[in-house]
Design brief:
The complex is a heterodimer of chains A (397) and B (291). With 397 residues, chain A is an alpha/beta fold. Chain A is 41% helix and 18% strand. In chain A, the strands form three sheets. Chain A has a seven-stranded mixed β-sheet, sandwiched between helices. Chain A has a six-stranded mixed β-sheet with strand order 10-12-11-14-15-16, sandwiched between helices. In chain A, strands 1-8 form a two-stranded antiparallel ribbon. In chain A, helix 11 packs across helix 14. With 291 residues, chain B is an alpha/beta fold. Chain B has an eight-stranded mixed β-sheet, with helices on both faces. Chain B has a two-stranded antiparallel ribbon with strand order 5-6. In chain B, helix 1 crosses helix 7 and helix 3 runs parallel beside helix 5. The relative contact order of chain B is 0.12. The mean pLDDT of chain B is 97. The chains are: A alpha/beta (397), B alpha/beta (291). Chains A and B meet through strand 3, helix 4, helix 6 and strand 9 of A and strand 1, strand 2, helix 3 and helix 5 of B. Strand 9 of chain A pairs parallel with strand 2 of chain B.
Amino acid sequence: MSEKTANMKVVEGSYAVAHAVMCCRPDVISAYPITPQTHIVENLSQMVADGELDSEFLTVDSEFSALSVLVGSSAAGARSYSSTTSQGLALMYEVLYNVSGMRLPIVMNVANRALGAPLNIWNDQQDAIGARDVGWLQIYVEDVQEAVDATLQAYKIAEDAEIRTPIMVCMDGFVLTHVYEPVELLDKEKAREFLPAYQPANILDPAHPKTFGAFADPTTYTEFRYQQFEAQLKALDKIEKVAREFEETFGRYYGGLVDSYQAEDAEVVIVTMGSVIGTIKDAIDAMRSEGKKVGLLKVRSYRPFPVQALRKALKDASVIAVIEKDVSIGSEAGLVTDLKAAFYNSKIRTPIIGFTAGLGGRDITVKDIRKIVDKAETARKGIEFEFEFLNLRTEIL
Amino acid sequence: MEKSLLAPGHRACAGCAMPTTIRLVLDAAGPNTIVVSPTSCLEVTTTPFPESAWCVPWIHSLFENAAAVASGVEVMQKRKGLDTNVVIIGGDGSTFDIGMGSNSGMFERGHKILYVCYDNEAYMNTGVQRSGSTPFCAHTTTTPSGSQSQGNPRPKKDMPAIALAHKVPYVATASVAYPVDLRRKVKKALQVNGPSYIQVNAPCITGWTFEAGLMIELARLAVESGLWPLLEYEKGELVGVKKVRRPKLVEEYLKLQGRYKHLFKKAECADMRGQIQAMADANIAKYKLVD
């Protein structure tokens, strides 16, 4: 058994993430249970109950209060953690803006799930994509190991003095939260070295009274927003740097802002985020063996949106197909719209088509990926459609 | 008198009870205090960036989450081994209505937090709309008096009873017109090892419409008429009642305020005035306000 596999354990995704959170040593955890996030906070509660984790764990009356508690704790100097999904994230919406506006470096795992109505508890990414403009950084992970590692990286990025911006680590609900797979759990001591104690610049302290959450009129409000904007742009470098530092300590690297698979000589490039990447890689392997030049570009950082990295990575593609688990009703969808915008003022004139797929937990299969690639090859010759719902069941419409 | 912990130069209206209430609370609490406030006139008038009237650490997040924010502040003080006072100062809109879920959670979790509600009986910051605290027959911009309306059709929500139902160990009502009583109650509340709630009658010159200079007088009349009894509960037991020597008729209180002027213009409103008098009489009887 190699040294690497020796530390591997088969655990549930939620446990693995909770273990990672424990290794981040949050002072305060506040969360409200909601499927499919529940196992993460149950595991954390147990760790506190067993004395494995020295954190204040607050059980609260709603997701709204959960994140509000962290506004207070973070402003008082606490490394602060929460986790939620779907309706819970929607209920937090107002607080999300407050956390980023006050530059509180809170980390939250979002177990991505569909929003009602109709009620649906299964995975898609509508919840987090819908919150793309709230001023938080958003990292989307591919598998449980990446969820673990990104959670530790997230605090290092968020708490950086130049960034001071909250982060959502987005992981597909059920697909990643409830799966049992082999994971290398973080080593506590290595995690401590990688992520030292939180050193906030400003806290609520009677010895040095400061005002948090003031009222800003039109003469100053824009500059607050600009500073957040600037910090997110700085995070483009920071995310990459932290991913490399993580690699040095732990030996794993997923790309910082983006990652690719078989993309170098690919004619058809699929662009996506999250757990569907595993299926896409299988489909690519199969198609490559048939001689089709298909590749993958994974977007890891959705906010900040890595415009330059995407231009560089996709400049040689002949056609691009975006697959995403969200829809902007009345327009197209988040990722495809942002990608087109990123290319408009560049020299890249590659055809781009978008697919919304996997909504409300519907499976995306290897067969579906083949279908998308076929459609992309047609689009290469001339775009017939720009955006569509994949596998729409027209018989029940 | 020592320097106030709320600096002058804030933008509150002349004759507003809110800054006076804050100063009295901070006088009693002292500098080892962190204040959490929901959105209200308070935030808008005391913290126009880059200025702040607060000489203690102060945080505002949203309209409906002060109790949750304060919970986070309080657990972190305890974790650091600090005995800092954590005090929420908010208006009745956040306290009685939109922040109820968050307040209930904080009370139930038993945080060592003093919640002070400066109660001016409507949403004043947005222009005098009705709140759950607006009293019977008060004219507001969303419960206006009119040919078919005598103002707010419902009595005031009993917020102290809601706090008591959570077994909040110290609950009191107070008044900006009784500063010694208010300061004493704040000091007592801060000794409690758990949540405490003090609801302070705080007249709003714009919302209630009264002559400049009558703010304290009105707050005193509310107490002397029996409409605002000064009460104190410890562990659910009524332990303190401020006696009223010679109760005033509620009309003396009502007639000084624009929000009740319709009650004196229409003949049919005599009955409404009677109903308000009956509420005061019920308080006088229930709390034995008169010896």
